[in-house]
Amino acid sequence: MRLKKLEISGFKSFANKTTLEFPTTISAVVGPNGSGKSNVVDAIRWVLGEQGLKNLRSKSGADLIWAGSAIKPSQGKASVSLHFDNGDGFFPVDFDEVVIGRKIYRDGDNEYYLNNSQVRLKDIVELLARSKLGLRGHSIVNQGSADEILKALPKERRGILEEALGLREFQLKKTEAETKLLETGANLDQTANLINEISPHLRSLKRQAEKFQKRESLVGDLNECENKFFGIKIKSILAEKNANQSVREEFREKILMAKNNFEASEKIFEDRIAKFSQTGAESAKMEESLDALNTERQKITRELGRAEGLIESARNNNIGNAKTLEAVLAIKIKYWAKRLDAALALSETGSIRESLKGLADEIKTIRDYFEKGNIAKILALVNLADLEEKTDNPHERDAFDLKRKLFAVEKQIEDAKNILQKIRSEEIEWRNQYSDLQKEMEVARRAYMSIQEAARSVELEEEKINLKEADLKSEMWGSNKNYEEFCDTMLPNFAIADFSNDLENKIIKLRREISEIGNIDEETLREYEETNRRHEFLTKEFSDLERAVGSLKNLIGDLAERIGGDFEVGLIKINEEFDRYFKSMFGGGSAKLAIETAEEKESGVAININMPKKRIRDLNALSGGERSLVSIALLFAIVSASQPPFLVLDEVDAALDEDNAVRFAKVLKNLAEKTQFVLITHNRSTMETANVLYGVTMGDDGASKLFSLKLEDAVV
Ligand code: ATP
If you placed Cys at 31, which of 35, 159, 357, 448 could pair as Cys (CB 3.0 to 4.6 Å)? Predict the structure, then answer.
């Protein structure tokens, strides 16, 4: 690696863009006081990431930007870039040239660049640390600060030495690991606290959740048992219902039959009663009219008797009147003669015979009546109208009328008697049938009643089953089960099982256990799950953090060991060179860096000197020049041991006398074999070591101006 060039623009007194090329191992910048030489060093320090404004001799970021002069206006930003040849891969990046850049604006904003890409300050710091370049070591030694290492506290001194020995990278890592360890430790504590905080609550929630789980499992068991239990019960009820249903149907048919039977016999009985009452009325009516007829007959008979008496007396008085019967027969004979003529006039013999037969029969009947002396009957056979004109006796006519009436009344009586007779015989028959029918009807009624009675017991049974069913429904409802739904969904798949007391006892036991557990809020369960998840997360986090703490501790231990080990080795080398340079500069004596407490890995470093010919051991007792010599001896020792790629020294040689300046230049030349130097000097011997000389002057515009110089010009 080699420093190639420095570009400055708008930085401090370098208002104009200025480029310093560093083509060789030693470059020197010379110029009058206040021309801006140290600003070059500041520019290098700044671009390498310096954050301390004091180290840049400024109070604010804006002080780093060209402030302007009477004739040259101020600028809004300052930029510096430092170019390195990375052909040897010194920087662990894939570029042959590495350019580190930095810009600052008046508002104080800083931008960092690596090969023109904007990066973070951290990236620059890490890159430099990895490359063993840094600000705290002796890469850059400001004007008047060469003895800073002498002034530094032992701990600070150790830091400077570590950086010079390239241990800064590890130190950074270690610091980073320590910061992380602190953070992780704090997180670990916080996590432990959180775990401790939620643990008791979680335990209580867990107990609840376990209860809930137990309850869930009991509820599951209960559900299973209840399903079985209800299934058995429903099956049995349905079977009972079915059986009862068929019995009911049988009964329904029987009842219907018995009813029909009863109603039929009842109807017969009633019909008969109705008929009988009608017959009774008829017979009463008949009897009534018979009575009336009899009365009529008596009346007529009486009148007839009176008329016959009158006739008899008339007969006695008038014989002509005694021929009434003969007159009747005479008329009859006339009539028969007419009919005989008419019959004989008929053309058909069959009809004649028939007509004659009629006549003969009639005559025979009359003869029979005549022989028996039944005159009334003979008279009845005669159409009395035919006789009306034939009688002249008014009593006979009355008698005749009366007889005719009597005849009619007797005929009516005869008919009435016949009817009455018939009614009576029917009545007798009915009386005989009545009790049979009544018995029959009673039997049918009883049969109907008893079958109804029997049916009522079946209905009662049905009622009982319905009650049982209703009880079961409400019991199921209490178990959050719907009877109908159960029948639809569960029952079809229900395996036939027998009812057992064990099952019922188990249900009772499960219900008791569930009620003992009581109701558990589902919210609690959710809270348990959430808290448990959080607890698990925290526990995992805790063990991750514990592991992280462990590995950070290991890392810190390893780094401390490495830093300590490398530091000790580096210190031995530095001590060899320190002692050698000291002896050479002071012409004797000895010098040594010592770790203050060897047991402590990171304890500070003390400087022990032994001046030749003097008994001075305290650094504060040295003269300014002596201090400067000790500082330079130590600087050279560090550079010899650590061999930094470049070193910027700002008037480190200012306090040296002629001899020491020559010695300084000589050592510089030796060291330049390994390390590139940029020197700010007023010293001729030093200038003589440089291959390139730059002159800086302050222009009329108040801005620094740079130009190349020959040695002769420089020392004039
Ligand atoms: P010496 O040899 O005395 O140490 P030097 O050459 O190292 O001097 P520097 O300290 O580099 O000088 O430069 C100081 C000069 O830079 C001063 O004149 C100062 O006014 C000027 N300067 C510093 N900051 C700014 C700025 N922001 N703008 C303009 N000029 C500035």
Answer: 35
